[in-house]
Amino acid sequence: MHTNGLIYKMIENQFQEKFESKSDAELESIAMNSRSFVFEARYAAIILLKNRNYNSKVIDQVEKEGENIEKAKSIKTENFKNRNRQLITRIRQIPIKETGKYRLENGNELQVKRWNESTFQVRIEDHYRSSLAPVIICKIKDDSTYFCYPFFYLKSVLMYGVGLTVLTVILFFMGYLGSDKFVLLFPLLASVGLQLVLMPFIYFITLSFFKKRLSGI
Description:
By secondary structure, the chain is α+β, with helices and mostly antiparallel strands. It folds into 2 domains: 86 residues, no CATH class; 122 residues, no CATH class. The chain is 56% helix and 15% strand. The longest helix is centred in the middle third of the chain and has 36 residues. It is elongated and about 80 Å long. It starts with a helix and ends with a helix.
């Protein structure tokens, strides 16, 4: 039997202590009952049976099942890494300070701008609302690992927040906006606030399109 990470965790799981007082027949029944017990519980049962030198075919069956679970987990992990490698390879082809543009099935455009060697800005351009939406920052850790997090779309903050603030200041000193100085901050606060509200929603949508379009999920 190939015993590694997953199996070691199974050996020392909570069910062993819980099943210590059970008879050999009860443990064998647990090991065979995949409908009522999770695999960790069934594996704990055969560990206890083995420790008692109990001979049963179910021990080999559950051990084989554990090997298959571990193999499936390894394949899934490797497939995940391969998709990551594919995505990383594609975005690394984008020159620094340039933007890679990828057409989406819904007609919008995925834009990936490379800031430096390992950092990218990811956003979806729909030529309408996207200018007000936050973006995703993608940072490459190594050839098969990257992580993403939501961030402000700085171009939007500068264009709408700062730009409208300048206009507001002009109108304020011309006497069109009353005497409350708080109004001077409103455009900037509104621009930043809107992106904060949209971040959780936009983050997962953009991340999903990013992965599907560039890693073939």
